[in-house]
Amino acid sequence: MPTEERALLVDADRRAIAYNDSLAQRRVYPNESAIAALTNFDTPLPETGQAATQVLHSLDELGSPATVTSNGPRYFGFVIGATLPAAAAAERLVLAWDQCASSFDGSPIADKLEKVAACWVCEALGLPNKSAVGFGTSATACTLACLSAARRTLLARQGWDFDQDGLIGAPEIRVVISETAHITVKKALRVLGFGMRRLQLAPIDEHGRIDPARLPKLDERTLLILQAGEVNTGEFDRFAELIPKARAAGAWVHVDGAFGLWARASSSAGLADGVELADSWTTDGHKWLNTPYDSAMAICRDGDALAAAMNSDAAYAMASKDSQKNLTLEFSRRARGVAIWAALANLGRAGLRDMIDQHIRQAGHLAAELRNGGYQVLNRVRLNQVLVRADSDEQTAAILKAAQDSGEVWFGATIWQGRPAFRLSVSSWRTTDADIEVLIALLLRLKNT
C-alpha cells in the first residue's frame, strides 16, 4: 500500500476512535453553532480536487460536531441501537474487502458468512430453519421484497402469471393491515401499487393490537400484515389467534417486526407466541441487534417464493437461487450481512438474550419512576418502549423541547390516540442503569420546573 494511502487510513481510524472515545461526553443532539457551521460545505464543485487529507479533515472538524450521538448511551429515539464493537470492527474489514456481494462468484466469503448469518437469525428468532433470509438496506426495502413475494404467490394460486402478465386484468389482492400499521409498511404497499383507499384497516384494542373478534374477512386473495412491536406501545398482535384464521382462509401473513421480533431471542419470547406460523417477516439489525445502519432482513418461509420474486439472474451473472442478489432488491450490493454475523458471533444466544432482557428491565424501571413522578405512562411497557404524557399537551411539548435542547438526552414526539406524547426507546448496548437514572432525573426536574 502506498505510504500516503496508509497514512490517510490510519488518520481516519484515529479520528474514528477519538469520536467513539468522546461519546459519553458529547451532546446527544448538536447545538446551533455546530449546525450553522455546516454551511461551510455549501461550495461549488471544486475545479481542482482537494487533497484526501483535507477531505477527511473537513468531515471530522465540521461534520463530527454536527452528528447526533445515536451511537452513545443516552439516545432514546426511534428504537436505534448503538453499534457493537464487533460489528463496527467487521464493517471496517468489509470496507477494506470492498466486495460485490451479489453471489458466490462475486465474493465467496460474503456468500458463506451471509448464509451462516441467515441460519443464525432464524435460530435466534425461533423461525422456520429453512426460511430464506435476504439482507437488505432497511425494513422498508425488505418489506417490499416480502410483499412482492406474497402478491406473486397469491396470484399464482389463482392461476395468474404475474411475471409475464403483470397487474392489468389480474385478480385483486386484498390487503388487511392494522389501524396502527407502521408508515414504512404503508410506503411499501403504496410503491407496490396498493392504493391507500383500497386497504382494509383492522380495528385495534386499547393497546394498539388487532382485535381478533373484529378482524375483516380473509380469503385466498388476502394479504394480512401483523405487527411484532407496535411503534408506540411495543405491543404484539395476537399471532396465535390471528395466524391460524388466516392460514385456514388461504391468506398470506406477513409480520412487520422491525424491532419487536427480537423479543423472540429474550426471556420475554412468549410475547410473540405464534409468530413463527407466518409466511414472511421483516426485521432490522440496526435497531435491537445493535449493528450499523443499513442492516435489515427479509425472511420468507418459502424460500423459492422470495427467490422467484426477486430473481435477477442474467446470462453473464447466473447464481444459485439463495444468492443475495436473488433474495433482495439490490443486484450490486455490499456485504451487509457480515455485520449481522459478527454481532451474533460476538453475543451468542446468551449475550443476545441478556442484552434484550436488560433493555426490557430498564424500560420497566423507567416507566415506574416516571409514573411515580406524576407522568402518565400510556402503555403497559411489556417491551422496551415507554409512551409518556405530562399533565397537559402544552406541558408535554415543553418538556420534550427542553429535554432535546439540554443535550443530555434525546427522544422524539409522537401522537397517541389523537394527543401528543413522547416515546422513550431503550435499545442501545451502551445504555447503563446510570444512564437511565440521568434520564429519569432530567424528566422529573423538567416536570416540576
UniProtKB/TrEMBL annotation:
Gene Ontology molecular function terms on file: carboxy-lyase activity; pyridoxal phosphate binding
A Pfam match: Pyridoxal_deC
Positions where N6-(pyridoxal phosphate)lysine occurs in the chain: K287
Protein's GO biological process: carboxylic acid metabolic process
Family annotation (PROSITE patterns): EF_HAND_1
Cofactor: pyridoxal 5'-phosphate
InterPro entries listed in its UniProt record: Aromatic_deC, EF_Hand_1_Ca_BS, PyrdxlP-dep_de-COase, PyrdxlP-dep_Trfase, PyrdxlP-dep_Trfase_major, PyrdxlP-dep_Trfase_small
Annotated keywords: Decarboxylase, Lyase, Pyridoxal phosphate
Entry similarity comment: Belongs to the group II decarboxylase family.
Annotated protein name in UniProt: Aromatic-L-amino-acid decarboxylase
Originating species: Phytopseudomonas punonensis
